[in-house]
Amino acid sequence: MASVPPEARPAIRLLRPPRALSPLVLASPHSGRDYPADFIATARLDPIALRRSEDSFVDEIFAGAPDLGVPLLLADFPRAYCDANREPWELDPGMFDAPLPAWVNSASPRVGAGLGTIARVVASGEPIYRHKLPFAEAEARIRQCWQPYHVALAALIQETRAAFGCCLLIDCHSMPTHPAHPGPAPDIVLGDAHGTAAAPRAMRTVEVTLNGLGYRTQRNDPYAGGYVTRHYGRPREGVHVLQLEIARPLYMDEARIMPHAGLSRLKADMTRLVSALIRTDWNVLR
């Protein structure tokens, strides 16, 4: 875990290819692992517990995309610090030392679960903070992290749509083990907000390609897509979004948050996926 002061932390990285070759865009809002020193100081959890909320190594899994002609947007800030896959102001009033402004969304299901824009708990359900926060802290994180990420993402979508007549955004994530999952667990879950965020052709093409690479896929269960999928996915306007969740046991030791030998194979396969999608004729998505 890297500890850096907030003013020195780059919020995002946009890795551009020399020339975009298709309407495909990749993004990873949860693989950031630059933890500000003041955040670590206020947390009651150890570094490993904080990192369980990360989509660890997803940035590495898709790192080959820019060399193939596909832009890759990465959040360098960690999800436990600010979640870019939420509305900008989904906040739990119980986390703060004074009443929140009336315009804050404090009643969403994500807030109720402790997983708002500024999370109250990590993915395992453990509380993050020793003390309540000032609202100014939430404002600073949203303006320094959430807003730059979405300004870049919106501009990238608009630029891609202008160049190709459409845009297919793959929002890249990882998912923890679910011991209670009935039957064989999927390797990858694809979410299109139950058919509202992308054309059926987009879902089917990604699904068939992954199946051909040997992965068990499932649609919209248990992940149908978060804020990015639902907010940006507008098929009638030529913008299609799929959330892609990769099972962490395929490539990492979840307890130690360490990659294992499966990472190399997965990275190669996701590069094959990107290559196949570049070769696809996406004119039907316009």
The N- to C-terminal Cα distance equals 42 Å
CATH fold-level name: Aminopeptidase
Instruction: Count the domains.
Output: 1
Strand arrangement across the biggest beta sheet: 2-5-3-6-9-7-8
Identify the CATH architecture: 3-Layer(aba) Sandwich
CATH class: Alpha Beta
Protein structure class:
alpha/beta
Number of strands: 11
Strand content: 15-25%
State the major sheet.
7 strands, mixed
Instruction: Summarize the helix and strand pattern as letters.
Output: EEEEHHHHEHHEEHEHEEEH
Mean pLDDT: 94
Q: Helix share of residues?
A: 25-40%
Number of DSSP helices? 9
Say which CATH homologous superfamily is assigned: Zn-dependent exopeptidases
What is the C-alpha radius of gyration, as a whole number of Å? 18 Å
What does it look like?
By secondary structure, the protein is of the alpha/beta class. It has helices at 37-42, 47-51, 58-61, 65-68, 109-112, 135-164, 200-212, 227-232, 262-279; strands spanning 2-4, 12-15, 24-28, 34-36, 72-75, 167-175, 188-191, 217-219, 239-247, 252-253, 258-259. A seven-stranded mixed β-sheet has the order 2-5-3-6-9-7-8, with helices on both faces. The protein starts with a strand and ends in a 7-residue tail after the last helix.
